[in-house]
Amino acid sequence: MKSINQRLTDTIRILPTDILISFVDQGLGISLLLLLFSLPFAYVTAVREIALGLASFFWLMAMILNRRVLLPKTPLDWPLLAWVGVTLLSLVWAVNPDYSFKEIKGEIFKGVVIFYLVCYGVYREDRLKQVYLALILSNLLMVIWGIWDFFNL
Asked: In 10 A of CB 72, how many CB atoms?
């Protein structure tokens, strides 16, 4: 009888790498669209976190399948590194360094990860159009909801 790891390895060998890469690419695209669509909504934090986790998972899987680090080079690499460095340096003067580090980890690092996820995930023109559409639709829904709420309709 085969172990679970051996059965999983046999299953992965059956699937061609091209199919896995295509699946990972589609998963990354869908999770990024879900993440970007949920950004304007204040009360869907869980959806944002799940979408970010899925997008990170698919990005990691793409790195494993391609056997290299897939970190796109951008003109903002050095400014982002400086920003992260300054925020970490600010821990020296923080009143409560543990709390400050938790906030830095939750806000700054997450923002940098989202930036690089979007830079990696939006590399084709059709994917860029999908991102624009998701952002426009989600903001349009927020505007409609705001007008509805303002006028108590």
From this structure: 14
